[in-house]
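From: lab user (bench 3)
To: helpdesk
Subject: output format question, protein + NDP

Hello, I'm new to running complex predictions and I'm not sure whether the block I got back is the full result or only part of it. Here's what I submitted:
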Amino acid sequence: MNLLDGKEVSTKIKEDIKRETAELTEKLGRKPHLVAILVGNDGGSETYVASKMRNCEQVGFDSTNLHYDTDITEEALLNKIKEINADDSIDGLIVQLPLPKHIDPDKVTEAIDYRKDVDGFHPINLGRMQRNLPCFIPATPYGIMLMLAHYGIDTAGKKAVVVGRSNIVGSPMSILLARNSNPGNCTVTLTHSRTKDIKSEILQGDIIVAAIGKKNFVTADMVKEGAIVIDVGINRETSTETKSGFKLYGDVDFEQVAPKASWITPVPGGVGLMTIIGLLKNTLEAAKGTVYPKS
Ligand code: NDP
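Helpdesk reply: Thanks, we reran it on our side. This is the complete output you should expect:
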């Protein structure tokens, strides 16, 4: 078994981003700038946004965290997004999900200028990704593709099984793995909660991407010998063993599955770190104007 080590890959890519950022800052006369909007007090979301902001600072970006109370109206949020869209000193904007029930996440996603949509959730970016055109790729699948590329994993012709079809992970992951690109060129099966006999589907995977949000869902009897296993799941449970008071578990039973896998990501220390890299790379591209030229 070989580890797909998010720490090793993200450290290396972050150094590259830092170098490029210093050059770009000199050229532009300002740093790349990411704004994150957070609504409410979900512990997980607060941790993710804080980590994104910290990573921005580490590579030399400016970052702003706009934190609103749960009772902010949809209209007020949409107006803030409009304001940021019009601000030339801001390159990227993300709105941390989930949002409170009274705010429509689709309206929010579509309100963001697609040229600042560094999470890659806007329909224009998703459509362009499907067509293999320059775009912002959703951060988690982007990070996974960068990880596969880093380890030189040959994906062409392999059977990939993606478990979970969310708009932010499973669906874009299936598109990227099927695209005519490297990594890519897989034959992809996209599974979900209505899939019949999911075990037999997962068993066929040369590459398995688990993104469902259920602790230890993928067990050793579902995984064929030599499979490449990518665990996106982050399941938080309270714990007295850790300083933070909680422990993270993946969607894959790592202990059981690792001996059968040729490559596997740990949780934590795998895909989560690569998601940050996807976001940083998109923000740098937004500031450079390489995906969408600055007007
Ligand atoms: P969603 O809840 O949006 O989607 C879950 C998907 O899993 C759905 O498609 C659902 O099917 C499917 N599913 C749920 N239960 C089953 C089941 N028993 N059998 C088969 N399929 C099932 O989740 P996300 O994609 O947003 O996140 C998935 C996990 O990844 C979570 O743990 C999340 O915290 C984590 N995550 C980690 C990130 C990282 O950086 N590492 C980034 C983003 C997410 P259906 O569509 O039919 O309901």
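A quick orientation on your result: The radius of gyration is 19 Å. Let us know if anything else is unclear.
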